[in-house]
## 1
Amino acid sequence: MKILFISHSFPPIIGGIENQNYQLTKALKESSQVKIIKNTRGKIWLPIFIPISFFKAFFLMSNYDVCLLGSGILAPLGSTLKFFHPKKKFFCITHALDIIFAEKKGILPKIYASVNIPSLKRIDKLFMVGNATIEKAIKFGIDRKKCKFIPNGINEKDLKEKHTRKELSKIFGKNIQNKKVILRLGRFVPHKGTSWFIENVMPKLPENIVMIAAGGRVSKNTAGDKDDYLNSEKAIIENKLEQRVKLFPAISQQDLKILLNTVDLVVSPNIKIPGSMEGFGINVIEAGICERIVLASNIEGLLDAIKNKKNGTIVEHENPEAWINAIKKIFKTDEKTLEEEKIKTGKYVKENFSWDKIADKYLKEMKN
């Protein structure tokens, strides 16, 4: 199969969509001919990238079987190309924000709702990264038959390494080799539940339990989710947790690997925020491939990423007591049982979320 892939955001830009587009195209190239038209200069370049990519794709499509768009932002581009190439098939990877952005207030969301949503309806097939995203799409009038859930994937070689607790202590800033360490990965935005967890769960946990929260901050001018970093800082100060909770709004890839391979527990305590949602929950998959114990909220895309008792445990969202009890239960479990659980988690993630298997799902759907 000859695939023309268009990505509005591609490495070296760092982010979830960027990594997903890169890893998917890399895996697709193993069995298909893939040509990539990519934006590697960030959002500021989009007004120039979109018309340039349209003209490139307009002439290239005659040599390709299908066009695969990296996100819903490019839906108008795809639907226009489809008008000129009606015999070709057009597909679009659709993330949660590609749908729910149309619900937000402001001029940009209104324009998006009137342009991008109708364009998504004209695409031949939408590859949704979560079932919750499909349900949102249906509410906007998108045909369920056009939607196919395909999860994000993971590459074990990119993350799994051997590291020591000494390295973890260095990141934390003091010796925590005898502490139980909780990690929360993800952007500092409200629906991730980081500030909620710090305020409602951490103060009620034993003193020997510490926490690291790492992820990017959201710019004030970014359309979409609001920044929640200051609320997390406030929760730490008000609950006198300065010695037990550390925030890292910018962390290197190497330090990320150290965290994922040394902490005792990874949490995704997401909460419900109107106008936002977790499309999939790639961070719990990253933790799983590194054989970490995982707890995740029972909402949205996390239910697609976590299969209860197979690669993590589902906990009732916004229920502090449920989270406190689940965490205490884990840390009371004997080491042998925990090690068996970690190995089982890693095996399940590898068997179900490796990029080669995810790429096969894309190819099968496009061939159909």
## 2
Amino acid sequence: MMRAFVAVVQHMSFGAAAERLSVSPSFVSKGVSQLEQSLGVRLLIRTTRHLEITGIGQHYYESCVSILSAVEAADDRARDMQRNPRGTVTLRAPHSFAIFYLAPAVARFNEQYPDIEITLMIDENPAQSLTAMKRGLDLALHLGPMPIPGLIAKELGEAGWSVYASEGYLAKKAAPLLPEELALHNCLVHVGMWPDHKWHLSSPLGAKTVSVSGSLSSNSILVLRDAVMSGVGISILPDYFTADGRGQSLVRVLPAYTGPRRKFSLAYARDRTVPRRVKIFMDFLVAWFRASPWNS
């Protein structure tokens, strides 16, 4: 019952908690109800569209996480004696990273540690990922500075961004030679990174800020990448889209200029005991990303 309650709070969903525990949603719901009855308190407020933890529930949840972490640590110590790490590691990550680099990384990790199960949660909202860490989930892969206190960031590397178009687009319209010429092009903007539609570009000769506009804006970098590859327009994209021979139809324009460079790291809760299986996965990802050709 305690594990069911913790899983519901971590995912803020009975369905997702049930999937995590490999049981039915009704089993999870019944378990939480029985726990509330045995305690004589209301832990969660449920409606058809909303789930909220009560004040008592929050205090009880924090105690449960500590207890379960201690149990996991004891279990891991016993398993360490057998040199056979096992269990589940949950990692939240941005969509593009998960598709391009985490999927093959997880596949290779599973070959080396078949008894460690990886749950990879796709999350385009960095704030949600980091908040999930505060609720006790294992790891989040985060791009940029760490805005939430109480988390430890283990740096993995740095990713660069550049201006890209497709061969098809450039066949119809000459490539810009200066940042100011972007005003003449259909520029596709990531609204999360450039909500004011101003691109900040750097070069050895200095920085440039240009106002851009176009037919498509999105909060998904994958949507923008696909639009660029289809010849819709020009956008600033991560350089890892073209690493390892990927994105062959993408052509870098304004090569003397670069977009932002964003550090990426693994985040985990400072006040939580890190199980050995999580440490093994973290060490694996550190080595994996340091060997990536675009990570410099």
## 3
Amino acid sequence: MKRPLIVLMVLLLALGGAFWWLVGDQGGNAAGKGDLLVHCAAGLRKPMTEIAGRYEEEFGVKVILQFGGSGALESQLQVAGGDLYLPADQGYIDSVREKGLLAESIPVARLTAGLVVAKGNPKGITSLQDLSREGLKISLADQSASVGKFTWSVLEKEGLLGVVEPNVVVTKPTVNSIVEDVATGAVDVSLAWDAVAGNFPEVEWIAVPEFTKRTKRASIGVLASSKDATRALHFARYVTAKDRGRGIFLEKGFKVPDEGDTWAERPEVTLFSGSMLRPAIQERVREFEKREGCRITTVFEGCGTLVAQMKSGATPSGYFACDTRFLTKVQDRFFTGTVVTGNEIVLLVRKGNPMGIANLEDLAKSGVKLGICDGEKSALGELTRTMLERREVAEKISANVVVKVAKGDDLISAMQARSLDAALVYRSNALASPVTLEEHEIVDLNDELAFAEQPYAVGKETPYPELMKRLGISLSDGDAKLQFESLGFTWRLK
């Protein structure tokens, strides 16, 4: 009985040893709890290796970099998942986003393809047309790499593929490999990214117009498969921060986007927003804040009040205005805004409309108690004033205006307190709470002057422009659209 038991124990020990060897043989490519797996284009190996090392040292989080051609990595992440994806071409980011595999992305670097030749350019190659010379040996990346997909496409578009292809003696899966071919003298020329060629002292890079007019952008995206999106975003922000990863990319010869965020463990920003937008965006702002690991102070007020605060020195990182004219008043402080939604001014009256109010003229009826917004303090007030003046009813109804407030929310409160018979409010004000329509009803004006458009803009002085861009995207995605439309807004985003 003892002999079989000893044999069984030996077998178990052998299996355990084999298992230990297999795990150990992964050499750091096996992600553990709290690790980050990054699918990264091979051409970005040098800066990303250094950045990952610094991040690990600073935060104690292991970053596993899986290098390869951008296309091959895309296929791999669809099967294996991971936390982040950094291809060398924005097209791959767009592709995985369309497939529902990616949540958000941040620009990292700009890449330009060109000719890579031996130092001193012994063959005198200066143009794409020169690649058709008889006897020339060319190495190109295959189309699983972003530079390969791009360069083959450009050669075809320029009508050169047919005369260049006979000189292609080898194709390789990564951009590093084809530059190495030139560096070692295996070929005469390759087509590769400027920054990658700059890492090889044996070669030089030559710009050609067919590629310089088609600069590519590399962005890092957080994958939907990430088990810790907040940590993944933390690393993505580190990679792209001006005073962290961005500087390393510059040191390695890469060009970077003009805008970029300052590094902060927990960024703090302020969003100014017209009060009528609160029901549509407040919860989404909180969700974004949690996912990004940032702090967002929201200031919801009438846009006239917000503009006055900005002109007195307030510098919000973003502004979601009730109407474009209120962004125009402070446009010098913001990048160009994007119109997201539209909203309509309507009449809110008591249930059953006992005063028989059907249009603006009816607001002049004797005994009507009317509430409007102040034209100096809110977009709603200014739009209301303009509409009443241009429809020539401002003077007629002036005696019936018993309440003038800073924002539409206050008019809803006055209606609920039965202080008013009618109020000129945004449709979204009336639909913000189901309680409102239990005792009141909406009368449509159907007036072209009764419309406002709401733009979102990022502040020029914010240290976090990329974060604020992502907030804008979050406030205007498909789920946001449904929320806005449920509150009576119309969708304007193109």
## 4
Amino acid sequence: MPALKGKFEFRKSPRTTRRSLLFALGYCLMLSTTLSSCSEAKNNAQQSAGSPESVAVSSTTEKQVVRIVRSKQLSALAVLEKQGSLEKRLEPLGFKVQWAEFAAGPQQLEALNANGLDIASTAESPPVFSQAAGAPLVYLATTRPSGKAISLLVPVNSSIKSITDLKGKKVAFQKASIGHYLLVKALEDAGLKLSDVQSVFLAPADANAAFSQNKVDAWYIWEPFGTRNVQNKIARVLADGDKLRDTGNFYSTSRQFYQAHPDVIKIFLEELEKSEIWTKDHPKEVAQLLAPVTQLDPPTLEIMHNKYDYGLLPITEKTITKQQEVADKWYSLGLIPKKVNVRDGFLTPEEYAKITPSDVLANK
């Protein structure tokens, strides 16, 4: 203490002492903040650049979250959540998985655009509507059509026997969904237009209630809603999408998430494809695993398994061309405000080669 006394002269100048202390404390605080900011900036830069140090950094800090849509269908995505393999693969990268539930595809892409979701799974139409609204989404992969898993339902005692009988009737569906798209195609095949029916835009849960209360005359919906209503003797299937559907589902993300975390997307697609293969080859085990998810008994799910064609498909020029046809159809009907160039949401072949599993690329 005498050395300090001689240097700073605490007792001889109380005013100077207070100023010196305040200055010293302020300087230390500023230095600490600056060093902390520099360290944080360095860590962020390492993670964005994908440097080897990023894994070490993430192990000592709070894990980042990748938010993926939860599937409540008989799907490989639902199996992936139950098996937990994705979580194990992403843990070394400093990521944990959060599964988020949404009513349908359009709601997913609204969340994707609002930074409330990172990976979505929808049919072909929601991305088109999202692109028309200016959202910078990225198409990651596609699937086989599985048209039998989408049904046009009518009440079990309905007098409606064919698509032409729908003229003037109330038909419920989620706007911008696969049900919307297949209704357009079914009506056109029967020589009718969308304006020939009364469109009732309802999310699946609301449509289910309206249909069971006979407030609508028909409902275009996907599984497991169809099978549950048939089992409960509420509905019968007027038609399914087997011959009508010529598109698959899409997995998509935001442009921002793709650019920041292509490594996460690559691992997601690898684990998803493994799940697709396992789901295809193990119908009994899948039925047991997903019975609580779908609210259907295992024997029913084993039968339903045949309605799906499992496995991812690579993005090709044919995929892009077909998606452009979908976009042009919605524009011609006046249901999107502007003509959409879907290619804006697709990556280059070289970019797809970096994130797509090799066995999926072999399906080109």
